[in-house]
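Before relying on records like the one below, remember that each one covers exactly one chain. Contacts with other chains, cofactors or solvent are not represented anywhere in the record.
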Amino acid sequence: MASKLDPQIKNNIARLRAGLKISQIDMAGRIGMDRNAYRNIEVGKTALVHEKLDSIAINLGVSPESLILGYNPLDVDSDPRLEDFKKDYTLRSREEHETSVREINRLIAENAELKDKVHFLKQALDDKNQIIKFLKSQKKQP
């Protein structure tokens, strides 16, 4: 399951054991090993066999997967990648919000300009109609 070359597992075991304030001697006794044999696991000199990994996990109150991965894959909140995902999502969400706000403000300004142009064109059309009306009235007079 694990090999001498996998430093993550030994680091996870040592971190969990120390976090629970269990000595190497006590841990070795719990899983039926002498201290030196257990120490060799934590320093990476001894390959872990499946039965010892299970025993270590039971004594640390975690799953064997937790020792291997560094988190419990069945507990979504314990996945360290979740925080990175949340941070990335929050950053992207904030950037998208800011981009949307800028676009909305740009569209509001463009809308205001277009309203001014429509008002100007309506005024020009009214002026033109007044001129036409005036010219027609002048044409009717002898």
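The radius of gyration is 38 Å.
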